[in-house]
Amino acid sequence: MALIPFDDRDGEIWHDGAFVPWREAKLHVLTHGLHYASCVFEGQRAYGGKIFKLREHTERLFGSAAILGFKIPHTMDEIDRATNELLRRLKIVDGYIRPVAWRGSEMMAVSAQQTRIHVAIAAWPWPSYFSPEARTRGIRLKMADWRRPAPDTAPTKSKAAGLYMICTLSKHKAEAEGFHDALMLDYRGLVAEATGANVFIARDGKLHTPAPDCFLDGITRRTVIDLARRAGIEVIERQIRPEELDRADEVFLTGTAAEVTPVGEIDGRNYQVGAIARRLMDDYAAEVRRE
Q: Taken in order 150, 152, 153, 154, is the CA torsion positive or negative?
C-alpha cells in the first residue's frame, strides 16, 4: 500500500495560534529546530473523541521546552483548547495528536536566543502502533547497539527531538533484520526502554520496570503502574540487568502509541503472552475510554 506523505493531506493544522490548511503548515529549510534539534514534542491519543490525559501531556510539553531553554508563547489552557478544537474540526474519534514546539529561523548558529518559538498541533486517525496480529502473538525485539545517554550528557527528562536519533537508527536496524523494534540499554549497560516505549517484565506474579533515571517516565507507564497496583499486582521500579531477561515470565511495552504491547521474543529469548499482560491490556483499554 502506498504511503500518504504527511505534507500532502487534507484537513487543518493549528500553527502559531491559527488553524491553517494542512499543506500550508510549513517551516523554512534554515529553521534552527531542523539543524540543531531545538525541538520538543508530544504524542497523544484520542479515544471516542476525547484525548487521554491531555493536560499531563501539555504539562510535559512545557516542561520539555523549559529544559531546552525556551518558553512556549501560549498558555497551557490555550494549547488544550486548540487541541480539542482541532480534534472537533477534523472529526477525529480515535486518533493520534502531535503537538510540537521549535526554534525558528532568525538565527542559524548554535547560539539562538533571538529565535522565535513556533508551536503546531496536528492530528490524524491512527490504528495500533503494532499490528493486532503481532500484539496477539507478542512482538519481536532485538537488542540495540545504541544506548540511552547519561543524564549529565543529554536532557534526558525532556521529550526532545534530538534524543530520538538513536531510536530511529536502532528501530531501522531491527526492522531490517525482521524484528518489530529494539530494546535499548542505558549508559551503564542496564535495561532502559524500547525505541518509543517503556518496558516491564513479570516474574513470579510481580512486575518489574526500570527506574526512569535517564529516560522518560512515560505517561502510559505511570498509568499502567497505577492499574497494576489497583489490580493487586506488586510493581517494583529498580535497575534491571539484561541477564534478568532470561528469567522473565512475561515482557511487555507501554507507550501512548504502543499502548500495552506484549513481547514474544528478545534476541532468541521467548516469552508467552501471559495473564498479567492480558489483564493490563484490558484494563488500559477500559481506562482510556473512561475519562
A: positive
**Per-residue pLDDT tens over the stretch 11-39:** 999 999 999 999 999 999 999 999 999 99
pLDDT, tens digit, 9 for 90 and up, residues 34-88: 999 999 999 999 999 999 999 999 999 999 999 999 999 999 999 999 999 999 9
pTM of the model: 0.95
* Residue 40 three-state SS: strand
Q: Which three cell numbers, joined as nine digits, stand for 86? A: 482541532
Write out the three cell numbers for 101.
514546539
Catalytic member of 53, 159, 171, 206: 159
Backbone phi and psi for residue 14, each to the nearest 5 degrees, phi listed first: -80, 120
Q: Please name each of the domains of the chain with its CATH number.
A: 12-125 (3.30.470.10), 132-287 (3.20.10.10)
- Taking the CA of residue 148 as centre, how many other CA atoms within 13 Å lie in the half-sphere pointing to its CB? 27
Strands, E, within 214-272: which ranges?
A: 235-238, 250-255, 259-266, 269-270
159 is catalytic: yes
Half-sphere exposure of residue 100: CA atoms within 13 angstroms, side-chain side: 20
